[in-house]
Write a structure and sequence with these properties.
The complex is a heterodimer of chains A (146) and B (76).
Chain A: H1 3-18, H2 24-31, H3 35-47, E1 52-53, E2 60-63, E3 66-67, E4 73-77, E5 80-84, H4 87-97, E6 101-106, E7 113-119, E8 122-123, E9 129-131
Antiparallel strand pairs in A: 1-2, 2-3, 4-5, 4-6, 6-7, 7-8
Helix pairs in contact in A: 1-3, 2-3
Chain B: E1 2-4, H1 7-16, E2 24-26, H2 27-38, H3 51-60
Classes of the chains: A alpha+beta (146), B mainly alpha (76).
């Protein structure tokens, strides 16, 4: 396994097991390598659109479908709590984990709360809707806005 | 990429925010998208899908409008 793949795996394992993004120092300690090499791997993964970093250049904003910062889209799986980047990713977290979960979010217009149980084969019947403002061809122009 | 309680809520939100209304997607179809997109995301052999693979996947799942085509030039 190459070094970037090892860093990527460590990042995702942190999200899966802690529900949070690891710092560069945490990944460096886990892999027993220099932090500078990990920071460089973060930047490389970001350039490949595997990660989205925050303005400081080394804190993780997104490792799809997980969010490195709190959002309105939350998912509970097996007692662990995750933040998702968007409505799509909120369903993407139980899909990625292959486990049942509960999505909580809100209607963006009315602020009515959403609670959606998600089974292994999909969500419970629900009249709620998903709306994406940005065309697919533009998703990565500003992925945080998307 | 947001949740809404109804199509009226989408329409009202778009109107109030000066945004165009796009195709709305039900939860079942959103799940099909999430499952196809993310079910192998944590696999050790995961790789990002190529653009042509994304196009094929979206069409297979019923996302057939130009809006969902990542290679479309209609919105440039």
């Amino acid at each position: 396994m190459d070094f970037e793949t090892s860093v990527n795996r460590a990042i995702y394992q942190s999200f899966v097991h802690r529900g949070a993004a690891p710092t560069v120092d945490e990944v460096a300690a886990r892999l027993e390598v220099d932090r500078g090499a990990v920071a460089e791997a973060y930047r490389s993964l970001a350039s490949q659109r595997v990660l989205v970093l925050q303005d400081d250049g080394e804190s993780i904003r997104m490792a799809l479908p997980f969010s490195g910062i709190p959002t309105q889209h939350q998912v509970e799986v097996e007692g662990r709590h995750y933040f998702a980047n968007c409505a799509w990713d909120a369903l993407g977290i139980p899909a990625a984990l292959h486990q049942t979960g509960v999505v909580t979010s809100r209607c963006e217009q009315s602020r009515e709360p959403l609670r959606l149980e998600v089974g292994l084969d999909g969500p419970e019947p629900s009249p709620w809707l998903f709306h994406c403002l940005v065309p697919a061809a533009k998703w990565w122009d500003d992925v945080v806005f998307t | 990429m947001l949740f809404f309680r109804s199509e009226d809520a989408v329409r009202q939100w778009c109107s109030e925010n000066g945004q165009p209304m796009r195709p709305v997607v039900g939860m079942e179809q959103l799940w099909s998208l999430a499952a196809a997109w993310y079910s192998n995301r944590l696999a050790s052999d995961y790789r990002r899908p190529k653009p042509a693979e994304v196009v094929e996947m979206l069409k297979r799942l019923g996302f057939v409008e130009d809006f969902w085509d990542p290679t479309s030039e209609s919105f440039s």
